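User: Here's a chain of 168 residues. Predict its fold as tokens.
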Amino acid sequence: CAVRSNQIDYSRILSLHYLGNYTRELPVNMTRMMENAYDWEHLPFIHESSFSSISLIASGKWGWRARIGIPGGGIQLLDLIIDLSENYWVSTVISGPGEGTEIHTKATNVSNETIEVDVRFYLPEAPADQSVQEFVLKYLQDQYRRLYDEDQDLMSGRQEALDTKAKL
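Assistant: Prediction complete.
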């Protein structure tokens, strides 16, 4: 992990196999979304079906790296590198199940209180055949649908708490 860059290499996308994407509007503002990207600690508590544990390796303004337990067994090393100026982040499975998978997410403002995320899935190589590609893409789309379902409540709750406190 110590030799990995803390910056997104946008040109790297050209060497990866694009599987497909998942887009979604969320009724939250960009501040809550970017706060959520930095918040590694919530993963095993809010997303129990995807993460059984997390142990931070390093973090900073650039994002974070962690050792993640997978429900049912298994460990992944994962990093999430953030380009805050672009509202863009990349999650990479460094080792473990799904090694080499990269998930590139771009968030854009729809309004002051609504954003859209475009989540793009990349693999180091093309799958063996079309049926494998379709299976992996559907799995990742379903996983991200579930993750954003769970994150939406967390981000909305944070905003409601801040709004309530501001009224006091």
